[in-house]
């Protein structure tokens, strides 16, 4: 589980049900002292995008995020999420710190997190499957007359 | 002349503010839910976020409610709020080529690899008022829609990510090769926009421009007041992942969410290179949310600014300074605020001119009479 990249872990934590985050971060809270280094607060992330024509980057605008930093035994953890979501940002930071400090309980979270990830993939696939039904193949009138 | 402040009117202003709130609510028996505005006024929210330059759907919905649906006022509120926040991060470069597509079309290539997907669009609907919406029951309506949206089992695990048409054209040598050296983009929220503007500055200004103004200018180019009339190489709408660098390990990144974007690549013209090769000249548009007309207008305008000529859309100062919703609406609406001293001074000048003119006429008459004598 410690092999899970931060990107993968944070994607699960951003998209999963808040109750799961409360459950596992609550376990960390009972096992270790959580120090809030930076309480949840809103801030901005500037979005960098790439222009297809020049392939050079440009700034397209900002996104509102909520961020939180905590520590467990001086090891930091961070939660950053789009939107005003103080509870989620805090829970994410606690879970991140728990992974960073290597709390033994994190091994028990693996199955839960992977199950949650599978739910996300299923939700996204359902949306994609509905969208796929609008796949279109236009015929030009010439082609249409050739066929009929 | 400079500005002269006015004073007084505090009680009247407070009453006017209360009246605004009264007019917002007086003919309703319930207050609009912000959540409903956010999720059921998608197009308005997308527009306000784009023009405010801040991706924050919930806050955009609050702004729309507060502004009674005026997109300019809502964008102003959003941009004003944004100025109170610290910017602590820059995203990793967003990759629209990896977006989870909900719509992807091309008006240039009928058979783009991966196919065309209409997705949610009004493009092929009759513009008939739907009176059923008057008494729509949310649950019933949603169930009926889901019944119509059947799912083919073979599509259940299909990933809707597609290589961009531009990349395919580039691989075939039909688009010029990029500059491999990445340059730091201009940031108009931190630096004053000066002219000539860099390409990154133009794109930033266009990305947060006002939809209507940009559409009008792009339309003028299409109608002949300019040189750009493209076809759509690819238009895609979908969810793009947003990530920032993980602060405690530079090799890691942190996923912070996904945002809906519209990306447009237009094909403007063909160029015959010195070596005899033909390449496409492309235009580019990328905006928050599903806002297709704005994204197309952006691609038209950015290409128009790459050409030389005398039409308004080829003048970057004209385009970039007049498409900003907050600037344009602010300046036009400021005319309603007290300008008593300005106007009084104009009257003074007018009266002085009248006086001089009358005296001049008197003198001319006297001289004439003098000659007569």
From TrEMBL, chain A:
The keyword Lyase is assigned to this record: yes
InterPro entries found in the cross-reference section: Phosphonate_metab_PhnG
GO biological process, one term: organic phosphonate metabolic process
Pfam assignment, any one: PhnG
Gene Ontology MF terms in the entry: lyase activity
Record keywords, A-Z: Lyase
Signal peptide: none
Protein's name according to its UniProt entry: Phosphonate C-P lyase system protein PhnG
Protein species of origin: Sporolactobacillus shoreae
Gene that encodes it: phnG
UniProtKB/TrEMBL annotation, chain B:
Lineage of the species this protein comes from: Bacteria, Bacillati, Bacillota, Bacilli, Bacillales
InterPro entries named in the record: PhnI
UniProt-recorded name of the protein: Carbon-phosphorus lyase
Alphabetical GO biological process terms: organic phosphonate metabolic process
């Amino acid at each position: 589980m410690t092999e899970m990249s931060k990107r993968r872990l944070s994607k699960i934590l951003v998209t999963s049900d808040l109750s799961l985050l409360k459950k596992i971060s609550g376990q960390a809270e009972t096992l270790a002292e959580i120090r809030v280094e930076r309480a949840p607060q809103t801030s901005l992330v500037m979005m960098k995008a790439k222009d297809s024509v020049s392939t050079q980057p440009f700034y397209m605008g900002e996104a509102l995020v909520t961020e939180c930093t905590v520590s467990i035994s001086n090891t930091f953890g961070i939660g950053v999420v789009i939107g005003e979501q103080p509870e989620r940002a805090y829970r994410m930071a606690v879970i991140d710190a728990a992974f960073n400090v290597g709390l033994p309980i994190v091994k028990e979270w693996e199955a839960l997190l992977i199950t949650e990830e599978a739910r996300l993939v299923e939700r996204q696939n359902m949306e994609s499957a509905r969208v796929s039904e609008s796949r279109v193949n236009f015929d030009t009138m010439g082609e249409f007359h050739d066929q009929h | 002349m400079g500005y002269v402040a006015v004073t007084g009117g505090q009680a009247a202003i407070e009453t006017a503010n209360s009246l605004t709130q009264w007019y917002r609510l007086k003919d309703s028996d319930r207050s609009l839910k912000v959540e409903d505005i956010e999720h059921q006024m998608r197009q308005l929210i997308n527009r306000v976020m784009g023009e405010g330059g801040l991706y924050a759907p919930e806050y955009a919905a609050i702004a729309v409610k507060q502004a009674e649906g005026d997109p300019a006022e809502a964008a102003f509120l959003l941009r004003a709020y944004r100025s109170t926040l610290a910017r602590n991060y820059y995203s990793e470069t967003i990759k629209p080529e990896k977006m989870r597509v909900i719509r992807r079309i091309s008006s240039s290539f009928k058979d783009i690899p991966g196919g065309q997907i209409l997705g949610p669009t009004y493009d092929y609907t009759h513009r008939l008022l739907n009176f059923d919406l008057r008494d729509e029951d949310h649950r019933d309506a949603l169930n009926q829609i889901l019944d119509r949206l059947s799912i083919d089992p073979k599509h259940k695990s299909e990933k809707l990510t597609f290589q961009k048409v531009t990349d395919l054209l580039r691989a075939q040598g039909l688009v010029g090769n990029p500059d491999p050296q990445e340059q730091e983009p201009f940031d108009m929220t931190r630096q004053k926009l000066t002219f000539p503007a860099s390409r990154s500055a133009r794109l930033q200004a266009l990305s947060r421009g006002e939809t209507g103004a940009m559409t009008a200018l792009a339309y003028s180019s299409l109608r002949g007041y300019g040189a750009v009339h493209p076809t759509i190489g690819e238009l895609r709408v979908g969810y793009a992942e947003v990530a920032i660098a993980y602060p405690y390990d530079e090799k890691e990144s942190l996923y912070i969410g996904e945002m809906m974007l519209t990306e447009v690549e237009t094909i403007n013209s063909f160029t015959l290179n010195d070596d005899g090769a033909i390449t496409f000249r492309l235009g580019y548009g990328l905006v928050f949310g599903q806002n297709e007309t704005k994204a197309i207008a952006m691609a038209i305008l950015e290409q128009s600014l790459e050409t030389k000529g005398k039409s308004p859309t080829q003048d970057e100062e004209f385009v970039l300074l007049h498409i900003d919703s907050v600037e344009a609406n602010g300046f036009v609406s400021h005319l309603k605020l007290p300008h008593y001293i300005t106007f009084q001074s104009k009257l003074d000048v007018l009266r002085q001119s009248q006086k001089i003119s009358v005296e001049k006429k008197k003198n001319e008459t006297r001289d004439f009479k003098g000659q007569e004598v």
